[in-house]
Amino acid sequence: MTETMNRQVLLASRPVGEPTSDNFRLAETPIPEPGPGEFLARTIYLSIDPYMRGRMSDAKSYAEPVALDGVMTGGTVSEVVASNHPEFAAGDIVFGYLGWQSHAVSDGTGVTKVDPTVAPISTALGVMGMPGLTAYVGLLDIGQPKEGETVVVAAASGAVGSMVGQIAKLKGCRVVGIAGAAEKCAFVRDELCFDACLSHRSDNLPAELAAACPDGIDVYYENVGGKVFDAVLPLMNVGGRIPVCGLVANYNLTELPIDPDRIPPLMRSILVNRLKIQGFIIFDHAHRRAAFEAEMGRWLKDGTVKYREDSVQGLEKAPEALISVLAGRNFGKMVVQVGDDPTEG
Amino acid sequence: MTETMNRQVLLASRPVGEPTSDNFRLAETPIPEPGPGEFLARTIYLSIDPYMRGRMSDAKSYAEPVALDGVMTGGTVSEVVASNHPEFAAGDIVFGYLGWQSHAVSDGTGVTKVDPTVAPISTALGVMGMPGLTAYVGLLDIGQPKEGETVVVAAASGAVGSMVGQIAKLKGCRVVGIAGAAEKCAFVRDELCFDACLSHRSDNLPAELAAACPDGIDVYYENVGGKVFDAVLPLMNVGGRIPVCGLVANYNLTELPIDPDRIPPLMRSILVNRLKIQGFIIFDHAHRRAAFEAEMGRWLKDGTVKYREDSVQGLEKAPEALISVLAGRNFGKMVVQVGDDPTEG
Asked: Which of A310, B5, B36, B294 has the fewest CB atoms found within 10 Å of its own CB?
């Protein structure tokens, strides 16, 4: 608490393809003072998520890019350390988008309090936060799985995929996950209790997926893109639904592969099988947060839903953590611990 | 009425690419006798529709292909000439899928009576029939246009596109059509009163479409595929909807163009703009028929909605008519007059 400098990670340059550590720069500035109606918070946990790759580019997207030399954007769990804001007091644990830095001043916009009695406070970045809500809304509202249907989800050990599959199991579906490493597949099968989990590294994914989905696929929760999508498409049943929340396999693409253009067969499949493919951004579904928090809080407390975190220590590790997430090397929800967690131990 | 032979058009061979007249064969068989619970009908009008291309192939689709040497399937308006069926009497005008032939025996399955007082009976194949319902359901139920939004539809002078645009105008939308020949574009603008109509033959379609849609595109009713889709996609607004009812530009494709694979940018656009792309087949929406018939009947009677037919005389012209439709050479709903229309003049 005697720190005087705010440590930050800035966007030094825009990546071409995979980001490297050269795209980031560490900086220090004096810790700011909160003005009237503001508070100062110190970061405890910083969330690392695939969408951050998009913010590093200046291509048109659903959100403004991070400016060059600007602080990287990111969700945070923080402790209020000084406050001139009537609704926040020193000692409060809060969730917000306070960025890749050790301290931040906020006027409270987009900041919510975290109840440390529901679950460990880091879960406000994962299962109880944006990834959990993304899984919940995309699967239930757009995917609309029915009992007995088959649901496929990739990145199945990740923050979103692990929740999609577990919620689909609760709804009575057959659930097939796709992950990379063998230990992730084992976790998905044995701990999360999916019906099957395949590796996207297999040379034989299309045939293995067909065998794991003997009744075809009714819902494919699309959060990776690339060759998993290619293996899924021929197996989609009539009336199938494909919620699209992310395309991490494509985020680092710099040019399109020269291949047969597959839009015609994709569109034909959409037509013949009456598929619905629908993109969504979680910020459009804030009205579902209360229902989500109540239900997910219950599932967590009674142990119905399990989650896994992959955490690294120290803000300076954040760039490497994002590079890992984009390459699929994390195992569980990636969180950077930036400061002490006062609720621990 | 003294005919003794049933004239038929059979599928002689499956086309590779564009169908040719060699894929069809004329045949004659004795006019069949209706058995108990059956009736004999003579064909007055035969509908020619793009979906028929799909039935000529044996690729997996939403309906069984026509068998080799089988009678081509098709919607018909017919007159009952002899009946052992309690619900159909000689002289009744009926709609059914009685195929490319001058006579057919039916047990009444899928056959409905046509009321000749609502509109000319040939409209049971067009504006009051399957194409009209396809326009109505796809636009209203899947596209869900709101007042002030921009709706784009291709094949705008055709049976489906002309209805999509007119219904969208009734809902208060800005409507931009895309057609081929200049006379079709003029008809769409001047007779159907679309706000604009562009030619897909223009070298400059993307820029012209952008200029015609200054507020972007909210609903693209996809019934052609190909380069119109390519021009539309970059203009889709956040939350845009793309009902997919046909892909006539692709139906004759024999191989995929070797081009950059555009699935990654398509999926990115779906994600970033939260698009919904949904295929549909009109046979899944039969429950909407009553509402459609009531509303469309009213619009036709009071002149709110206009339609255009392109008719040819004689069953033997049906193959050529289908080849024309697939090439976009028809102008309005294509109908083959196979026999005398007793309700005319």
From this structure: B36
